Fold:
Amino acid sequence: MSLNPGDIFHQHYKIISQLGVGGFGRTYQAQDLANPKHPLCVVKEIIQPQSSDPKILQEVEKRFLREGKTLARLGEHPQIPRLFEYFSENNKFYLIQEYIDGHDLSQEIGTGCLPLSETEVKQLLQDTLEVLSFVHQQHIIHRDIKPSNLRRRKKDGKIVLLDFGAVKEIGTMAATYSEASGGTIAIGTPGYMSAEQQSGQPQLNSDLYSLGMICIQGLTGVHPRALPTDPSTGDVIWRYATADRPIMSISPELERILMRMVRYMFSDRYYSAVEALEDLRQMDNSSLTHPQNYQPTLAPPTVNSLPQKRRGSPQIWWGIGVTSLLLGMGIIITLIPKTCAKVIGDNLSCGEEILSKSIALPEKQEGVKSYLNGRYQEAVEWLEKARKKELKDPETLIYLNNARLKVDGIPFYTIAVAIPLGNPADGGDSGKEILRGVAQLQTAINSDRGINGHGLRVVISDDFNDTGRAKNIAEKLSNQGQVLGVVGHYTSDSTRSVLPIYEMNNLLLISPTSTAESLTENHPLFFRTIPRDRVNAEALVDYLYDVAKQKKAMVFYNPNSAYSRSLHERFLIRFDEKGGQVVKQFDLSNPIFNAEEAIRQGENRQGTSIVLFPDAKSNPYAFPNALKVIRANQGRYLMVGGDSLYTTDILQERELSNGLVVAISWHYLSSSNQFFAKEAKKMWDGNISSRTAMSYDAALVMAIALKEKPKLDIIQKLQSIFNPNIERNALYKSLKRPNFETKGATGKISFELSGDRAEKVVELVKVVPSKCSPYGYMFVLAKYKSAQEAGITCN
Structure:
């Protein structure tokens, strides 16, 4: 039963009028009779599920309370309505929010409205990106950015962000549970909703797509649903919106920003509003600064320009020669690209910029600002405070270590780590997992100048899990002569794309995660501490065939991924050798993939097990489709898979993923180096993943090779200033020695001639219930039936 004008609700809210109605409930304007400070408010009424199942009711109410807390926290921002109260009453949920006096943007953009000017669009972008930056820094997605949810506040003209999609999801989820159906809920508005959001997999930059389409609608006067798309890329075509009227002239800079915001593939967009806002601000400041590549013309000194001294004095000419040599050397050195040049927005940082946008403590921001301005002691003090508040953040620790090197005046070598940090499609926090291993090794080295009296400086680079950006990162790192080696990249596809660039510049690459079989073919400067795909594939086959006695399998993989394809091929070879049969194979990259139908086809061919080899989220469909298979399976068939499934995404599937067996390279429960495992747990406030252990070993190998490389004489050191290949070649030769060997987090480390890890380190882990996990499930060694049997205790 709906509320009516004049009704007194919840004892002190007097209903004035109904503002709106939708599938999730109703919205009313009301007067708060008990609080004269904010008499006008908005009452949002959300339906509850009509279900007799107490678990369903409990789950929906838990979600409502969680979202209420989130909205209360977001309401602290001046451009988001404050949340005064949230509660359940009469089998309905209610949110009481601040009423914003003003008008929706739909009155400025839409039918009958004049097109917006570039200045108006830039102001709209800045206003909205500023509040979205706050939202995205909380790692929250709005999911329903549209003109009617952007309200122009009357008192100051500011844009206020209304109606987060999570509120609608509670109502939609309630209705969904009432119908006893499942699946991911897609929230949004057609035309403003990106492809990945339509498929129920929204990203932070899905909000940017929506905002970009609003701005394009403002410029063109055309609704987004009426704009054509490029059939080859899926990108919207908007620059000439109609055949008879092109839009007014806009600057190339604004066009570039909008184009990047509305790219079809989310990996091609800005990661979040923070990054887009930085670009917009740089556009506004570009007219006040010199181009980055500007260099003054340097004329060589002439005889007439030198002081006139008595001719014939050899001392004078010798002095002039030395002066000219030193001057020439100084000029050349200034022209050599600087390492840690403190350029904001270049996706590289030694401490001058936060690349991991999900963690933005004020102390960390102040530390980075101090580092950027060369106040390294201040940077150390701020970053130490940030480190104490958030132990799990490896970026803070690396920047802290780098700043300490500056303060203490310790000589150092420089390496880089290339990982995905900005892209939410990075394999489940994989970038930070890799970064933790590098940070832990750097901390150990710098504590006692462990490389022959030198410390280790680390340059962080964000390749966004995108091959195009990975190539750009490789070019930049190659041109910075002090960078002697690189730990990375995350995916096999990114690694394959950058290898020719690194080899052209004699830059050593050691990967802790790229496993595709073909990577080491004809690539002498590439090594990896993680075994190649055949090791994991063979372990999975042996488990499936010999332990689980499953001889017929349906296989799901992405043929366009180097990693997925390689793992799939090695699995087929081994399974066939054992006598197993793959009854059906399915392409996970198919955008119209139907998981229920796929399993049905496998069943019809007597398939009794499921093998999942999705990529590491480099494709927008493969990993989500693998999750659909897990949901459609409903626990009927045994599931096994590759290490791309070793993520929290799987644990969040809860009982649907129970029993899933995944092949990984290392697990803390079976580590041969328990000292490392305990130190890592202490340093990172919890147990670490195999990616952290493997990246620690990759950085360790780099450090050992630096320590054991041949010493350069004075002439070679002088030459190395101008020719980085001298130091880089020495490092490569040190690592390429036939007897190179060390012991790391994952045990003995040595390499075959190809650069592959010689040791076959592999572990099978299984998803089991656990009260010690925030998800209710965790990975333990597959030989255990439960977390208790594995010896897991909650700390």
